[in-house]
Amino acid sequence: MNKMENMSSVYDFDPITGNIPATKVEVTVSCRSVCALLGGAKSGESLCVLYTQGVETKQWREFGRTEVIDNTLNPDFVRKYILDYFFEEKQNLLGSPASRLEKSLGGIPGKKCGTIILSAEELSNCRDSATMQFCANKLDKKDFFGKSDPFMVFYRSNEDGTFTICHKTEVVKNTLNPVWQPFTIPVRALCNGDYDRTIKVEVYDWDRDGGHDFIGDFTTSYRELARGQSQFNVYEVINTKKKMKKKKYVNSGTVTLLSFSVESEFTFLDYIKGGTQINFTVAIDFTASNGNPSQSTSLHYMNPYQLNAYAMALKAVGEIIQDYDSDKMFPALGFGAKLPPDGRVSHEFPLNGNMENPYCNGIEGILEAYHQSLKTVQLYGPTNFAPVVNHVAKNVTRTKAYAASVQDGSQYFVLLIITDGVISDMAQTKEAIVNGAKLPMSIIIVGVGQAEFDAMVELDGDDIRVSSRGKLAERDIVQFVPFRDYMDRTGNHVLSMARLAKDVLAEIPDQFISYMKSRGVKPNPAPPPYTPHGLTHHHTHI
Asked: What is one Gene Ontology biological process annotated in the Swiss-Prot or TrEMBL record (predicted)?
């Protein structure tokens, strides 16, 4: 049997924090030229087992397996894996162009075992939202003095035949012919993406004491509702108990669908698959408040044996986001230092010393340039953020277009600022953030050290939107995370690199979508599906 182990980490739903996955992805598996392992047989049985790795434990668990296919060297498995997809975790299959990955099968030294092909597809109906409106006619009268106060309750059916409540209409008072307000519901909530799954609707008469009287019910499906207003979408409301008692019972009224429309919500993945590039810039705080790099108490301590707080934060966050940046060349800047040879203070100097080309090759290149800078510049001050924020927003460099020149959705910019949090130019930084909110950019601030980070929390804008000179930022673009919350007591180890990266990057997809929506930018269609001709190999690990 041929077994495949997929090394992509999948984070389970966490009931404590209520982490609902960003989107669901369906993974389809095929193999080509699988070697026969049964002596003399042309081919044996093939099946594919998917393992996922826990974020904290790193233990491999079986996630699922395909059906067994007999007698072919080129199996196309029908059973698919449905994975929860998180942008902010390392799930490497999904960053590859056209979301397709081809790998050689290993396992037998010196023998070609064939090829495995994985293709990932976001479940297309997961993000659709349906808007519909209903009215009813001649519902049963339930109240002794008045008529009825009707409302409806919608349930989706589950695989095991049980029902889950998914929507309640408002109550319309004192009428047997109510017209309810239109409502919008995710298709996922209504039928979990299965258009033919039963949807049950119950009609009640509202009572103040909560003992609502059952009028009757009917069933439908998403596929039926999607036909819109027609004779097919007029439903008899049936009360089974009443029907059994009364011989001449016809129904307890009718419910009619007045209108139905569906709208697709584009997701972060749609844009990535359509070719949008995430451009990642790093800015590092070189101010004196960090402490002398030659002393072990410094946040910039140059320890030959382990990474300091700045390097750890850069590595953890950078390794996640670099998967979305195809050329892996990142501008890396420093601020708040005196530069050689004349000791002038700079708030946006290139870590590699090259003003013309501040790009470093990958996260390793940034770390190298950072360590080099520590040896050549003098930590100083003040701590000004505005210059690096404006640098990303305004500058158009020789090698890559920056945010101000890109309005068509093909590029999005993320600035990572790593700082000890003692900020000197709060007013100017707020102004820069308000201006930056109009551009395709987000800012991640990672606070290192033990300072009070009140100013960083204010810039984060989760509770109160950042404003400058009476102007509110048009959207929230800043995410702040205190690094110490992820460290052990010694301050030498990150308890969970994955959890840090997750919390730092969790807001990026929503910030990204809010920009694209506000500009009416739709994703480009994804490139055509893979064909074997002219295959190019993309480096993605699995």
From this structure: cellular response to calcium ion
Instruction: Return d(Cα 530, Cα 121) in angstroms, integer.
Output: 13
- Closest-CA residue to 418 (of 482, 476, 325): 482
Instruction: With CA atoms as reference, report the closest residue to 433 among 424, 422, 444.
Output: 444
Residue range 446-477, pLDDT digits in tens: 999 888 888 888 888 777 888 888 889 889 99
Cis ω for the linkage preceding 331 (within 30 of 0): no
Contact 447, 483 (CB under 8 A): yes
Helix (H) or strand (E) holding 9: strand 8-9
Distance of CA 113 to the CA centre of its chain: 35
Those residues with Cβ within 8 angstroms of residue 316's Cβ, 6 or more apart along the chain or in another chain: 494, 497, 500, 501, 504
- The class (CATH top level) of 23-122 is mainly beta
Helices 309-321 and 497-505: angle between axes, nearest 10 degrees: 60
Q: CA-to-CA distance for 12 and 468, rounded, in angstroms?
A: 40
**486 SS3 class:** helix
Tokens found for residue 217 = 């019910």
The pLDDT of 319-327, averaged and rounded, is 79
Burial category of 1 from C-beta neighbours within 10 Å (exposed 0-12, middle 13-18, buried 19 and up): exposed
For the chain, what percent of residues have pLDDT higher than 70?
Answer: 82
Q: What is the DSSP letter of 523?
A: P
Going by C-alpha positions, the residue among 471, 416, 396, 399 that lies closest to residue 438 is 471
For 46, the token pair is 């093939």
Q: How far apart are CA 395 and CA 50, in angstroms?
A: 45
Stated as kind and residue range, the H or E segment containing 262 is strand 254-264
Backbone torsions φ then ψ of 453, nearest 5 degrees: -105, 30
For domain 128-264, give the CATH number: 2.60.40.150
Q: Who contacts 228 (Cβ-Cβ below 8 Å, separation ≥6)?
A: 257, 259, 260
Structure tokens given for 12: 């389970």
Q: Which CATH architecture has domain 268-283+294-321+370-519?
A: 3-Layer(aba) Sandwich (3.40)
Question: Domain map of the chain by residue range?
Answer: 23-122, 128-264, 268-283+294-321+370-519
